[in-house]
Amino acid sequence: MLLTKIEYAPPRHHSDYPFNLPWQADFHELILTRPVTILTGDNGSGKSTLLNAIAANYNAILMSGAALEDHPEYDNSRALARHLKLTWTYRTKAGFFFRADDFISFIRATRGRIKYAQTQLEHLAPQSLERLPYLNTLSAIKHLYQVDLDTLSHGQAFLALFRARLHANALYLLDEPESPLTPENQLSLLALIHTAVANGAQFIISTHSPILMAYPDAQLLALGDTLAPVHYDQINHITFLRNFLDDPQRFVYHLLND
């Protein structure tokens, strides 16, 4: 375990976001007891808000390699982060902070780098020394990901990125990493997470995925009126999904005919 405790000391006047979430009223500290912590809750419950603030507190590195402090969109996260205290077994900057939107931008930028390098090579003589920087770019990307990202689907590129970027003794903050993945590929992601955990990595994951929530021995936390431990079978999302899959037409009929 790298990160072991998160303490919260609210400001005196905190009626506005990001200090007005219901669970914050009774939240003082969170002890992290497992290598994988799962944050669950409805849209708007504050899962991403908490994850962003943890990332902002220690200026986590974004998946792109940029520092979080360089992004003004995290101003609210930094405001909340100033009221958090993180306790570490040992502090690390290894790992990254992931959001699904950032992944889309990252893949587009990486594919743009590939396309640009390929285009430049097409216009340079085969023996020209000017080709070297572009060849190095393509070689570095291929070496890191072991596949041609330019030929992969969105979900395939996502898994290739995680295969390449999950390392031992690193902290990963993942906000809805299931977004680009089919259920089968979510299981593949779960296997990658498990391998990284076996090598000393730690994960805090905000998710709506029943598959990721099923990670064995994960610390499951529900955000709502409180921030509290929850069993898998008690998660509202799981209960609803089971009822829907038992009789989807009943749900759809009442929805469309109400």
From TrEMBL:
Keywords: ATP-binding, Cell membrane, Ion transport, Iron, Iron transport, Membrane, Nucleotide-binding, Transport. One of its GO terms (molecular function) is ATP hydrolysis activity. Residues 33-227 form the AAA+ ATPase domain. CDD domains: ABC_ATPase. It is a peripheral membrane protein. GO terms for cellular component: plasma membrane. One of its GO terms (biological process) is iron ion transport. It is found in: Cell membrane. InterPro entries: AAA+_ATPase, ABC_transporter-like_ATP-bd, P-loop_NTPase, Siderophore_ABC-ATPase. Gene3D superfamilies: P-loop containing nucleotide triphosphate hydrolases. The keyword Electron transport does not apply. Transmembrane segments: none annotated. It comes from the Bacteria. This is Glutamine abc transporter atp-binding protein. It comes from Paucilactobacillus oligofermentans DSM 15707 = LMG 22743.
